[in-house]
TrEMBL record:
TPR repeats lie at residues 91-124. It comes from Leucopsar rothschildi (Bali myna). The keyword Repeat applies. Keywords: Disulfide bond, Repeat, TPR repeat. Transmembrane segments: none annotated. SMART domains: TPR. This is DNJC3 protein. Residues 8-21 have a biased composition (Basic and acidic residues). Gene3D superfamilies: Tetratricopeptide repeat domain (1.25.40.10). Residues 1-21 are annotated as: Disordered. GO terms for molecular function: misfolded protein binding; protein-folding chaperone binding. PANTHER family: DNAJ HOMOLOG SUBFAMILY C MEMBER 3, LD25575P. One of its GO terms (biological process) is protein folding in endoplasmic reticulum. The keyword Hydrolase does not apply.
Length: 227
């Protein structure tokens, strides 16, 4: 304004100043809500700020943290992906995205994101440790699926048992392994074991279509047509 005073520009400048004061106030409230673990309130305040400050990587990372705490990991991924682009060498964002995908059971996307982290810093301890874990799990699952395609069901069962040992902490992998083992047992003419295992899976995921189909096949082998 000092370099080029005019009424219109003064009004615009005053509006922007008022807005910036308001955004700073919202920012303080958002941080306070986050510290008090009121993540829903923090998200609502950050939504308002990010509608104006679209390119603020740190605010996006903060909102992602809130989404994670609120049990909405897919929304967190979207903010973290933006933060990874907005901030140079943002290894932390790639690490978090990879971890979320891993926890959701998407090992292939997890592997892809953790590789991005290691491209930026090959000595990143957390990323390297996660990379080794995801790579091992990914290889076991790919190998098991290859055995299934070849009709080598015993080998596939053994490989999926290894998957459960490799990742005992994240339930989605155990459930998926059991679902695929049930498939192998059914195909391998072992209906009793297949029914037992598929029932276990269906207690956890009542609408798991694959488990329902494989259990139905196993019931047919046992001549249990009503079931």
């Amino acid at each position: 304004l000092k370099s080029n005073p005019s009424n219109n520009e003064e009004k615009e400048a005053q509006t922007q100043l008022t807005k910036s004061d308001e955004l700073q106030r919202l920012h303080s409230q958002a941080l306070s809500a986050y510290q008090q673990e009121d993540y829903e309130a923090a998200i609502s305040l950050l939504d308002e700020i990010l509608a104006v400050c679209v390119w603020d990587a740190e605010l996006r990372e903060l909102r992602a943290e809130c989404y994670i705490k609120e049990g909405e990991p897919s929304k967190a991924i979207s903010d973290l992906k933006a933060a990874a682009k907005l901030k140079n060498d943002n290894t932390e964002a790639f690490y978090k995205i990879s971890r979320i995908y891993y926890q959701l059971g998407d090992h292939e996307l997890s592997l892809s994101e953790v590789r991005e982290c290691l491209k930026l810093d090959q000595d990143h301890k957390q990323c390297f440790s996660l990379y080794k874990q995801v790579k091992k799990l990914n290889k076991q699952i790919e190998s098991a699926e290859e055995f299934i395609r070849e009709g080598r069901y015993e080998d596939a069962i053994s490989k999926y048992e290894s998957v459960m040992k490799t990742e005992p902490e994240v339930p989605v992998y155990s459930t998926r392994a059991k679902e695929r083992i049930c498939h192998c047992l059914s195909k391998n003419q072992q209906p009793t074991e297949a029914i037992k295992l598929c029932t276990e899976v269906l207690q956890l995921e009542p609408t798991n279509v694959n488990a329902l189909k494989d259990r139905a096949e196993a019931y047919l082998l046992e001549d249990l047509y009503e079931e």
